[in-house]
């Protein structure tokens, strides 16, 4: 098993509903360590840049509008197979299809407002971490 880092967002809906602590508890209970974190309110330009791969999709405008609608928590999670482990904790993109006990099943209302983001591969994790964090903002655990 490889120790990986992945990038995670608690989206505006879940922050607004005061679910930050509950979601952090799920990460930590699963053995993922939070090695960087901050609250930010994205500008339109930041949201468009982050989701650039979806810029031609019909939902892009709604996605950018939602992601700029309020503050978000961004964090780096570290642990064994962190990318896949976090995607499993999150559940399917559409909460109606998300497995029981996943974050989206428990905290998301719709496919458009689905509580969390997680990197879908190691390469995107590296890119997304660098989009939000300088190297000296990430704190490796020594104990
Ligand atoms: P995310 O990037 O936010 O972690 O979500 P994901 O990988 O599960 O889904 P992705 O395909 O990357 O889509 C990004 C976000 O766009 C919205 N979406 N809407 N209406 C639709 O068909 C649709 N498809 C995607 C979702 O809010 C999704 O989280
Ligand atoms: Mg995605």
TrEMBL record:
InterPro entries listed in its UniProt record: NDK-like_dom (IPR034907), NDK-like_dom_sf (IPR036850), Nucleoside_diP_kinase (IPR001564), Nucleoside_diP_kinase_AS (IPR023005)
Residues holding ATP: 11, 59, 87, 93, 104, 114
A GO MF term: metal ion binding
Broad enzyme group: transferase
Keyword set includes Cytoplasm: yes
Known EC number: 2.7.4.6
Stated name of the protein: Nucleoside diphosphate kinase
UniProt keyword Transmembrane helix present: no
Organism name: Shewanella fodinae
